[in-house]
Amino acid sequence: RGHPGMIASTDLDAPGGRRDLRYDELWRRACALAWAMEALGLRKGDRVAMLMGNSWEYVQTFLAISAAGLVAVPMNVRLLEDELLHIVRDSGARLLVAHHALMHSRPRLRGVAELGEVIARPVGAPQPGQRDFDAFGQSAEPPGDRYPAAADGADLASINYTSGTTGLPKGAMLPHRAWKAVSEYTCELLSFAADEVTIHTAALTHGSGFLLLPTMEVAGRALICAKFDPPAVLDLLRDERVTSGFMVPSMIQMLLEAHRSGPTLKGLPLRALYYEGSPIDPATVRGAMRTFGDVLGHSFAQTEIPMFLTSMNREEHRSID
Q1: Roughly how many angstroms between the first and final C-alpha of the chain, as a whole number?
Q2: Mean pLDDT of all residues in 71-89
Q3: What pTM was computed for the model?
């Protein structure tokens, strides 16, 4: 409402090329999708499983679930079929929203819907490489200012599943106040500002997805990539005036290797290169600071307490020798 004409998200890999969504358009579409979910019989607190790669549809669906007072269950597209089935059933999902290609490559997921255990709604056109989200949730407009649904901070916003290193993945129940706390601390740690352009090359279902709300909190733009291509990302940092992004340490190392013979990138607008998920060696830290400047931010946490149990800011990175 405060910035209706500003670009909220850019999907660089949408069918037919780049797709920009303004804040007013994104919110209108999210509300229409929320209305469609209610029309299927879903009510506050019901779980909605999401099997979607990085895309504008993912952003819209995530916002729609929250707007309707439902609970998002993001699923890693790289999981095996048995793991996905476990998450759908364990979470008690009543609706599965999945890209066509992902749904049809996993016939047992289709079987869950055919058995009547869960409603399934594939999104995107069935033709390879094409997506057309208008097939679900865009045919009717919700009346008035129906959304967002009233929510308490203790209400569930999402169930995020662990990696399952000691057994099957376990669902961590994250309330709205957890997402709000992560968003506020992200803005502080990474110095988010009104011109924020956050690049999403890592999965939105995991760490990168936690940067969506803080970007929107400052009316910034989410730059969405379907995959991580180091040379292309280096170009995007310059061409799209990227100011922040989330990566795991191995991705930072691949960026440095792709840039090995290139000029310094310290003159770019990049303010925050945020990493977590695994250890990082001092050589990679030093190389990133030489290449990108004083931009590194780090945190350690777990799925149950997302993103920030401990953190290291820019000043603390300077002490690494």
Answers
A1: 47
A2: 91
A3: 0.91
